TrEMBL record:
Pfam families: Acyl-ACP_TE (PF01643), Acyl-ACP_TE_C (PF20791). GO terms for molecular function: acyl carrier activity; fatty acyl-[ACP] hydrolase activity. Residues 2-132 form the Acyl-ACP thioesterase N-terminal hotdog domain. InterPro entries: Acyl-ACP_TE_C, Acyl-ACP_thioesterase_NHD, FATA/B, HotDog_dom_sf. Its EC number is 3.1.2.14. This is Acyl-ACP thioesterase. The keyword Lipid biosynthesis applies. Belongs to the acyl-ACP thioesterase family. The keyword DNA damage does not apply.
Length: 245
């Protein structure tokens, strides 16, 4: 186990959806902001790693469990901890609590280092992860098996300039936008995710078009993001009905 880090914040109006809940892509953005602040305080910021090693952090997988989504103006605490690492993967926990200390969202993220020029995965540098005081563990944390979709419904989306981050690839939270949008407004008005497994397979190139495809059986949906005939991301989501307040 590694060092923990916390930040408190209130959910702003522009991060709330039609139901008054925070948008899950914004949960990811806020969580990564918190881990980024921890990295800055420990002297291993994204800027420092890029300048010293020409490396950038990218996310390979998410495992997200939702009890309920925080609401507009609600005060939350986001806590993060770099749990462990092995030769290629680093595992980090994010937990979101309400004011009473009750757990609302639990998220596990798998990080890898990538060479910014070659775009290839780079082995973990011990001096980069040492400040987090996380454990070295050879054990791999594996997500579920993702099966090909047989008869999906799909929708195309243009990849816009502002969908890209400074590394030149689509911001990882944007994939969730595409995944949710294909579910339709009526469904999203009545249901929120209970569990999400999301795997990033291949970068989406700037420009062009992606296809978001889904197959839903009851309260489980399976998703693929593809472009140029290649799978870019896959997800499995279990949904829950929104509880009336």
């Amino acid at each position: 186990m590694g060092l923990t880090y916390q930040m408190k914040m209130k959910i702003p109006f522009d991060m709330a959806d039609m139901n008054g809940h925070i948008k899950l892509p914004d949960v990811i953005l806020l969580s990564l902001q918190v881990s980024g602040m921890q990295s800055i305080e420990l002297g291993v910021s994204d800027k420092a790693i890029l300048e010293d090693y020409n490396l950038v952090w990218i996310i390979a997988e998410y495992d997200i469990e939702v009890v309920r989504l925080p609401r507009f103006a609600e005060e939350i605490t986001i806590e993060t901890e770099a749990l462990s690492y092995n030769r290629l993967f680093c595992y980090r926990r994010f937990t979101i609590y309400n004011e009473a200390g009750q757990e609302l969202i639990h998220m596990m993220a798998t990080f890898v280092l990538m060479d910014r020029d070659s775009r290839k995965v780079h082995a973990v540098e011990p001096e980069i992860v040492a400040p987090y005081q996380s454990d070295f563990d050879k054990k791999l944390i594996r997500g579920p098996k993702y099966e090909s979709l047989e008869e999906p419904i799909s929708k195309d989306y243009h990849v816009r300039f502002y969908d890209l981050d400074m590394n030149g690839h689509v911001n990882n939270s944007k994939y969730l936008d595409w995944i949710f949008e294909v579910m339709g407004a009526d469904f999203l008005t009545h249901y929120i995710p209970k569990k999400i497994n999301l795997k990033y397979v291949k970068e989406v190139r700037p420009g062009g078009v992606i296809t978001s495809a889904v197959e839903r059986t009851g309260l489980e949906s399976k998703h693929e993001i593809t472009s140029d005939g290649v799978i870019n991301a896959q997800a499995i989501i279990t949904w829950q009905e929104i509880k009336k307040v």
